[in-house]
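Contributing: when you submit paired examples, paste them exactly as shown. First protein:
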Amino acid sequence: MTLTKDPEVTPKARVVTPKARVAERPAATGLAWLYFSPTMLSITVWVYGPLLFTAVLSFLDWNLVSPDIAFNGLKNYETLITEPEFGNAAWNTLKYALFVLPFATVVPCALAIALWKRPGRMSEFYRMLLFLPVVLAPVANALSWQFILDPLYGTLNQVLGFAGVEPINWLGDPATALPTVVVVTAPKVVALNTLLFGAALANLDRRTIDAARLDDATEGEITRSIILPQLRRPIILLGLLSMVVVWPWLFTNIGVLTRGGPSNATDNVYYRLYTYGFTFFDAGTASAAAIVIALAFGLLLTVHTLLSRRFRATR
């Protein structure tokens, strides 16, 4: 007896021809753009829109109040080039970046590794303590440091006085003002990046480290040969991101503690931009400074992307 399949019951496989695929693509693409449109709209309105407005404003002469607006051409950019204050602010910005970089990479990476190697409740407690500076109100934190660093009655000078150290004008001396502002800002940078390095370490395999310990490898060798090579990319990325995140914190501390002084020793391009816009009411020059800063960061991101691609290609 031969069994035959009923053609009406047997399911037919759906054959998708190339023409059918081409016909389905526009619908799928359109649906994808529909889901993506709120994000694109938000980015356009809140990022590219103000950036375009700032670029237009950088070619104008306007005091933010008067209805008289004049076309200024490239004079605002010429002002930035010829004005020594902006050159000094740019140089100070580079010094800020160099001073902040160890607090953004070396210190938090070492703390994160030390806490990761000893998991437990105490490790979580120390992470909580380290993260406290991030949640402190920036202005209140800066005011607290102002009392601590007071040259006559500050707590720091009083403590140093017991050791026979003469009082130091931490914020009034051009030689110490900029490093002091960096040290005041450092706890926030260290706290945030320690948390981020901890997240990167969570992806590492502890079994490799346990095997290295069974082979009598020292903790220094484990850190140097196993952990740090796997953290190379997070170190570079967090170092770059810190150069973006740290400036609002530095701006607050400069505005409260030094106001760019003494003798513009703690000035930087961000505080100089604020001075152009809201002290001199020169919207054109302030906008030109903002565009220069945006281009500088764009160049920095481009270099980082090219180096990352080259690093991946050589691996």
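Second protein:
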Amino acid sequence: MDGELGDFLRSRRARIQPEEVGLPSYGRRRVPGLRREEVAQLAGVSVDYYVRLEQGRGPGDPSRTKSGGVSDAVLDAVARVLRLGEAEHAYLRAVARPRRAESVPAASRVRPGVQLILDGMDRNPAYVLDHRMEVLGWNALADALLDFGGSGSGSGSGSGSGSDERNIPRRIFLDPAAREIYPDWAAIAGQTVAHLRLQAGHHPGDAATGELVAELSRASADFRRLWADHLVKPCDHGVKQLRHPVAGLLTLPYETLTIPGAPDQTIVAYTPEAGSETAERLALLGSWATSRVG
């Protein structure tokens, strides 16, 4: 994650043409997008200050806070110039003022009360992700749909998938079957990387996240390409299509909820409309899975 701030700012500069912000282009440019001095001008800071910011050095500028960090005013101005979305703006703040580098302890399971909530959602596949997109807990219907390998606690007690296969990015990029499971694999892959980068920005010292990114970068050219795009976006709601060998093609709206008291854990619940074809197919899948266990 070294150099992340500079790489992110350069990638965002490259997206914006001078004409879009009222500046002359002065003919052909060696690199696409805005120059650093143009960003500095539009943000109202010195060129030296912005260069130091993009290089990850401590800018000697009165716009820094008393604690030495870059001020909100400067980051807000840069975000405005670079037309950052809400998630990108939050990410800029996180990587410009990283917390003290330290690894985040890996949570091995969810609280018993949260597991009871999952189990009570018998019509909705639901599971819990941590900030590395590791699946920590799930209900029976999620297991039937996604094969997490047994009943719900995340302890690995059931037969089936191993712990590595419960990591969503590994499943998407390293499992050859993923492109068959997800008809719109390219969109799913992009969303996965954008969410992982957002989480990595909020945990800059987490060694396990860095190891996951390094592993996927070595093993997958698609991951390397998408990671280099510096996309930042949460996967907090949306719709996925999934092709299941028993249930067939499913259209699955999903919502996410952060767990109180465990801010790095998120419930992901698929929420097909009652009476829809997908809901009926999920009900049949649940019955099929129950009959197999019985």
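If you have annotations for the second protein, write them as plain sentences, like these:
The mean pLDDT is 85.
The longest strand covers residues 248-259.
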